[in-house]
UniProtKB/TrEMBL annotation:
The lineage of its organism: Eukaryota, Fungi, Dikarya, Ascomycota, Pezizomycotina. Residues 9-153 form the NAD(P)-binding domain. It comes from Bimuria novae-zelandiae CBS 107.79. Keywords: NADP, Oxidoreductase. InterPro entries: NAD(P)-bd_dom, NAD(P)-bd_dom_sf, NmrA/Isoflavone_reductase-like. One of its GO terms (molecular function) is oxidoreductase activity. Belongs to the NmrA-type oxidoreductase family. Isoflavone reductase subfamily. This is NAD(P)-binding protein.
Length: 167
């Protein structure tokens, strides 16, 4: 079994905190970031700062995502992609790629929440998150949804540790 974990959205607050924690473990973290113009130039300092590779992920190209997961031997994907705009296209594509990859076996979707939505689809945010969970239910992937409560590191006055991503 591979010990490579890809953090989709790993350059943001929560993603960066996960990357920092994984660097101290027996796992090898990688960051998946959206494909943008001049990506390597813009993220070279981040790669150097965090000490982990930052890989371009083109979420609109399923075949390239499958190849990316396979070529880097990524066993587990943890998503911290923002889905607040009710646009879960990028993550839905990543779930399909993980399902098709022969090396990827585990997935944690970006449905981070203070509570379990159940089957309540009355608001757009809940519907978006439930769509991701339902997509995972239809795959052979091992997966879990995390309902962590409020992240007080980001919503309360604190003194950040040197390892935290900060507010």
């Amino acid at each position: 079994m591979s010990r490579v974990v890809a953090i989709a959205g790993g350059s943001g607050g929560l993603g960066r905190a996960l990357v920092n924690a994984l660097k101290k473990s027996t796992y090898t973290p990688l960051i998946l970031a959206r494909k943008v113009t001049l990506f390597r130039i813009a993220n070279a300092p981040l790669e150097e700062e965090l000490g982990v590779p930052v890989l371009q992920a083109n979420y609109s190209d399923l075949d390239s995502l499958v190849q990316l997961l396979g070529s880097h031997n990524i066993d587990t994907v943890v998503s911290t992609i923002s889905n607040y705009d009710n646009s879960h296209f990028a993550e839905a594509s990543l779930i399909k790629a993980a399902e098709q990859s022969i090396v990827t076996h585990r997935y944690i979707p970006s449905v981070w929440s203070a509570f379990d939505y159940g089957e309540n689809q009355e608001n757009a945010l809940a519907a978006s998150r439930l769509a991701l969970i339902n997509a995972l239910r239809g795959t052979p992937l091992e997966w879990t949804a995390l309902y962590t409560g409020t992240f007080l590191d980001f919503y309360a006055i604190t003194v950040p540790s040197k390892d935290s991503a900060g507010p």
